[in-house]
Specification:
By secondary structure, the protein is mainly α. The chain has helices at 2-7, 19-50, 52-66, 70-81, 85-109, 113-121, 126-161, 169-179, 184-220. The chain has nine helices and no strands. It is elongated. The chain starts with a helix and ends with a helix.
């Protein structure tokens, strides 16, 4: 069944040879949603972690929104964005934002004050302190948040694609149930699991490269 889903030929199901088409669309949705969540989560996480007045302003609201289950946002998302890309990307970005934000806040707020004072005594300004002290100290927590957010992105991809989109792995799951092609459900779930694992390994590789390049640049300066 998996071979037919990938390469086609046997025509065992209506999805014969259509895996790459659906996979490409799903990967693009995850990339966009996760990218938006990462950008917002990292920015707001560092601001909240280092600036108490900002944390007092935005953190209570974020904590309240976080308690609303993702399925609860589905009706509003459908009203705001309609069936299609907008709803799926919104649900992915919303769900992935919270673990990224929380972990970045934890990492940024846990930087030892002795490190900050040492940097200030050496004449470092705010930007230099961020580059040489705050960011390296918070980076491990940030990576944890990104990995959690990426995993959540794949889970919420399925929720978003169950709303009636024409292409995507979640759409295949829903259509398989509706058309009685039950054997395609575990096949699609396996594809999602494998892609989640591959994307997680890729994220770790990219983070290691960024941190290595960053360290070389920081030491070079």
């Amino acid at each position: 069944m998996m071979i037919d889903f990938i390469f086609g030929g046997a025509q065992l199901t209506p999805y014969s040879g259509k895996m790459m088409d659906n996979l490409w669309v799903s990967c693009l949705r995850v990339l966009i949603g996760f990218g938006l969540a990462a950008a917002a989560g990292i920015l707001l996480g560092f601001l909240s972690g280092r600036k108490r007045f900002i944390r007092r302003m935005i953190d209570p609201l974020i904590q309240m929104i976080r308690t609303v289950p993702g399925i609860g946002w589905l009706p509003l998302a459908l009203i705001w964005f309609g069936i299609g890309e907008g709803t799926t990307v919104f649900l992915i970005a919303l769900a992935a934002f919270f673990p990224i934000y929380l972990n970045v806040v934890d990492g940024a707020s846990s930087v030892p004050e002795s490190f900050i004072r040492a940097g200030q005594m050496l004449g470092a300004d705010q930007m230099s302190l961020f580059r040489t002290v705050i960011f390296p100290s918070a980076f491990p927590s940030m990576v944890v948040g990104l990995r959690l957010g990426l995993g959540v992105s794949w889970a919420y991809l399925v929720l978003g694609e169950l709303t009636g989109v024409s292409l995507g792995l979640g759409a295949v799951l829903m259509d398989s149930r509706m058309l009685g092609q039950v054997e395609m459900i575990p096949v699609t779930m396996l594809v999602i699991a494998v892609m989640g694992f591959i994307s997680d390994r890729l994220l770790i590789f990219i983070c290691r490269q960024i941190y290595s390049d960053y360290e070389r640049g920081a030491h070079g300066n």
